[in-house]
Structure formats: C-alpha cells, structure tokens
Specification:
Helix content is 41%, strand content 13%. It has helices at 2-10, 91-97, 101-104, 110-121, 132-145, 157-164, 173-179, 190-207, 218-221, 242-257, 268-273, 288-294, 299-306, 322-325, 332-349, 367-376, 393-399, 405-421, 442-458, 464-479, 483-498, 513-517; strands spanning 20-26, 33-34, 44-52, 62-71, 74-82, 126-129, 154-156, 233-239, 260-261, 263-267, 278-281, 312-314, 353-355, 529-531, 538-540. It has a six-stranded mixed β-sheet, sandwiched between helices. A five-stranded mixed β-sheet has the order 9-10-1-8-11. The protein has a two-stranded parallel ribbon with strand order 12-13. Helix 19 crosses helix 21.
C-alpha cells in the first residue's frame, strides 16, 4: 500500500493511505461492582437470575425471575415468579429453559412481576447476578416501560470468578459451581440458578482478602484478572500521525507477544497508555457499542461506551441480516433502529458518525471466495453471501436514505472526509532512508582491524596491489557511512565462532577484501596469489592465467 501510494504521487496523482488495524479489544477495566453503595459485605444482597424470550432487553421480555436474599453471610429467603411475556416463547428458548407458553399464560404480567421482585428486594440491597449486565438490563428495561425507579448497585460474579478462580476453562455458571464442588442443579431455570449463585457468591466473599469489608472495596480487592480470559470485541484503530504509528506498533507487538490467546488481544489499560496519535472507531456489530445496543443496554450505559470512541460507525443493513436469520433481532427495520441509535449517540456526544462498508472484498461477486475461506475454517454459515464489498458513494447514499437526505450525506460523505482530513498524509510505515545503529569509533575500529590483519598476512609494508584495494574499499565504506555495518557483522561473526558456530558469508560481502581482513568472510577476493606465512613474500597472477587460488600447485617460497 505504501509503495502504491508513492507510485501514484510520483506520477502526479493524489492518494492517501490510512493505516490502522481492526483490533480485538478487551475491556480489562470492568469491575465486579457497578454503583456507589457503601454497604458492608454483611449487609443485604439480592442474588437473582432472569429467564427471557431472547437476548435483547429492549425487544425481548421476561419469563421468570428467581432470587435469593443473603443477609450477614447467610441465605434467608427466596423469591420466584413466572412472568407472562405477552408473546410466544421461541421454541429454542423453551428447549433451553423448559419454560413453555402454558406455564406462563396465567402468570403476572411484566409490571406486576417486577414490582413484586423489587418489594422482595427492599430499598438498600445490592444486587448480584452472573453476567449481571444482562439480568440488570432486563429489569431496568421493564422498569423504564412502567416508570419504576431502578438504579441499583450490582455485582457481577463472572468478573469475581475470573479473578478468584483463574484455572477454570470458562466461567459459565455450571463450570464455576463444579469448580467449587457445589453439586448439580437445574441450569437455565431462574429459581435454581439464583440458589446456586447465592452459594457461589458466599464462597467468593470468603475468598476475598480479610481487609475487604465493604462493597466499595471489592473492585480493588479483585486484582490480577487474566486479560486472556476476558471477552474481546472488535475495534478500529487508525494512525493519525507519526506518534500514533509508533504507538500502534507497540500495541501490535504487545498483543502478539504478551496478550495472545487464540487472537492478538489489546487490553484497554494498554490502549489508554498508548492512545496518543490514534483514532478509535466503534467498529461493526462485533464492537462493544453495537453489541450493547443490540442487547438493549440503558441509554446512560450506551453514552458511557460511545464516549470512549473518536468516531462511531454504522453499516449497511445487509451486513447484519444474519442477526435476523439467527433470531437475534426481529427484522431489518430493527437493524435500522440500531443505526439510528448510533446516530443519536453521536449527536448527543458531538462525535462524528461514519457510514462504513466493513469491506472484506472488492466486488460483490467476490463473496464466493470468502465463503470458501470460511468453509475451510469451519463456519456453519459459510454459504451466507454477506455483501461486504466496496460500495460506491451513490450506493452508500441510497443505503442510508432512511436517515434523511442531509443526515445520509453527513455520514457517507462529510464525516468520512472529516476523519480522513484528521490524518497526516505523509505517514510512512517504513521510513525513507537507511537507519544503521551507531557505534562510537566504528571508522577507526574497522580501519585498524582490517589493516592489522592484512599486515599479519602480507607483511609491512603491504604489497601495492593489496594496499590500493584496501584503501579503495575502506574509502567507499567509511565515506558512505557503512563502517558500523561492517563492525556489527564482524562482532556477530566473532561471537558466533567463539561459541563454536561457523559462519559462511557470501554475496556482495564475499567480494570485499575488507570483509575478509575484518574476519567477516573467509573468502579472499584478490587475484590468485601465493603468500608465504613466514617471510610474507607474495606472488599475484593478474593476467588471468589462473582461474582461482585453489588451482595453484603447492610451491616452496623462493
């Protein structure tokens, strides 16, 4: 890409390469506790679980709430209620939870069920759930639909498990329960999940440091979670300037050398440290922002996530139609609503929203190649021809016309150019010129080493043919700043040979007498000749009559 851009500019064209990466981003700053409760660890906790008709708190509904009240380190009472979702329960959900339409048809509706749950919980309780954002978001969404105040402090036992049980292969509820030897239970029923989770949570409290006496101290006490075990999300990182290029290289190196687990991971703490000169985009549906919107997270949480990024992304509807096919969202209109939510977030935070293609291939017909690659990797949906091709400006304007003509132009044209204009045009991933290391006195070292060795072989004064050749080579090497390269090579070869590793050097270095005299190469490039190891007498054959010094017969020194 760099060479192509150089070639285009050299011929009078104008072409800017925007360098960057689609990263696997890991938010390692998520604490177990969300909220500001000052309760002690012996106060009241409501350990709960919900069952639902699907994964989206905004679009799906509750079918069951199960809870256990923990006070002063003991389980005191339990709560369980079915909820009528006022819609059919999908078959795959019934298979997972064993909850049928028949079981919930006479149950309280959402508002009544949630009010009963909150009455059981009490006002000052801290809530506890496994993957708490999911369960809390369903309760919050239900409360929002019925104007019920609900802004609790809550604890996520998944985060606690990652910090306290680092040897587990995963942190699913049944895996954690088994790791603590708590026995079997009916997984995916809220009442049973809440009961086992209460016992898990009590064990976790015992495993905390003794000085951890309050809820507010739990996050600090849970240090050292393994980044490699945290979920990753997609993220776009663009290089804005030279400082950003250096920082991106640091991030890429660390992601492969220190944080590699199936994928090269970039932790948020590391990204924050090396963010200067970079632009962060919220990425595709696999990014943390789109994922939060898809799961119906509260508006305040969406603002918090979106606020971390420099620009927000929306993509064509067809890119995400697999969400409809898999039953995660209802229809393509809902995908449009997700994009509209991103636009509203951008307007609220005054951040540019950019329409991107998520390009995986150039032309629409090239989708078949991606399908072949995906099939080879074991993707079950490899035959789904997702149109991730490079669309034209007109195609993108038509795609986003549901935002209105002005807004479509803003996200397709105005903001894409705004991002491009924020990026320096002279960034080179490989800079022009040579950048040899610096070794003090390299010129003198090379000259002295070479001449001393030559005198040991040929005597002092040197034969004219040898002296002229060395002076010519040394002049070219030293005057062009290459002494350091020869000294470096000499030290490497000497060190290798000192440890018993023979080094053979050939190519352009093999034609250099300096390299031979410096000990870099065993090849002597001079014309075939005799030299006496005792008196240093020499005879050179410069007329071409001898092809190689090895062809000369043995001869006594005259």
């Amino acid at each position: 890409a760099m060479l192509a851009a150089k070639s285009i500019r050299k011929s009078g064209g104008d072409f800017k390469v925007i360098y960057g990466v689609e990263a696997y981003f890991v938010n390692d700053l998520i604490g177990a506790v969300t909220g500001n409760s000052q309760n002690s660890t012996s106060d009241t906790f409501i350990v709960f679980d919900v069952e639902t008709t699907g994964l989206s708190a905004a679009n799906d509904r509750l079918t069951e709430i199960g809870a256990v009240k923990v006070v002063n380190g003991e389980i005191k009472e339990s709560f369980n209620i079915f909820v009528n979702p006022e819609r059919p329960i999908p078959q795959k959900i019934t298979e997972l939870t064993s909850i049928t339409d028949e079981m919930v048809k006479d149950a309280p509706k959402e508002e009544e069920a949630v009010r009963q749950f909150l009455e059981f919980s009490g006002e000052d309780a801290v809530y506890v759930a496994h993957n708490a954002n999911f369960d809390i978001s369903f309760i919050k969404s239900a409360c929002g639909r019925h104007n019920i105040a609900f802004d609790p402090t809550f604890i996520d036992t998944v985060v606690m498990a990652r910090a306290l049980m680092k040897d587990l292969r995963n942190y699913k509820l049944d895996t954690v329960a088994k790791g603590l030897s708590l026995g079997d239970f009916h997984h995916h029923r809220a009442c049973d999940d809440a009961d086992i989770l209460a016992r898990i949570f009590l064990r976790f409290l015992e495993m905390l440091p003794s000085e951890c006496k309050s809820v507010s101290q739990i996050n600090t006490a849970l240090t050292g979670s393994d980044v490699k075990r945290l979920p990753s999300r997609h993220q776009i990182i663009l290089v804005r300037n030279a400082a950003g290029l250096k920082n991106l290289y640091k991030l890429i190196s660390a992601s492969h050398l220190e944080y590699y687990y199936k994928k090269p991971l970039i932790p948020k703490t590391l990204l924050n440290k090396h963010r200067d000169g970079l632009l962060l985009g919220s990425a595709c549906e696999a990014g943390e922002l789109y994922d939060a919107i898809k799961l119906g997270r509260p508006w305040g949480e969406l603002l918090n996530i979106a606020g971390y990024y420099d620009y927000l992304e929306i993509q064509p509807i067809a890119n995400n139609m697999f969400l409809v096919d898999e039953g995660i969202v209802n229809d393509e209109n809902q995908i449009r609503e997700f994009n509209k939510t991103v636009v509203r977030l951008g307007e609220k935070l005054k951040k540019p929203v950019v329409a991107t293609c998520d390009v995986h291939f150039l032309d629409k017909d090239d989708a078949v190649f991606r399908s072949i690659l995906q099939a080879g990797q074991g993707f079950k949906d490899a035959d789904r021809a997702t149109p991730l091709y490079l669309r034209t400006t007109d195609e993108m304007l038509k795609e986003f016309e549901y935002l209105g003509k002005e807004k479509a132009y803003e996200v397709v044209v105005t903001n894409t150019n705004k991002i491009a204009d924020m990026i320096d045009g002279d960034i080179l991933p490989i800079p022009d010129g040579n950048f040899p290391p610096s070794i003090d006195g390299a010129d003198d070292t090379l000259k002295n080493t070479t001449m001393n060795r030559a005198r040991e072989i040929y005597g002092d004064p040197l034969p004219e043919i040898v002296e002229k050749r060395l002076e010519k080579e040394l002049g070219s090497i030293i005057n062009n700043g290459f002494s350091v390269m020869y000294v470096t090579a000499q030290e490497l070869v000497a060190d290798s040979e000192a440890h018993g590793y023979l080094v053979g050097s050939r190519g352009s270095v093999g034609s250099s007498l300096v390299a031979s005299m410096a000990g870099i190469s065993e090849v002597n490039p001079m014309a075939p000749h005799y030299v006496c190891p005792k008196c240093k007498y020499s005879e050179f054959f410069t007329d071409g009559s001898v092809g190689s010094g090895f062809d000369l017969p043995e001869k006594k020194c005259p």
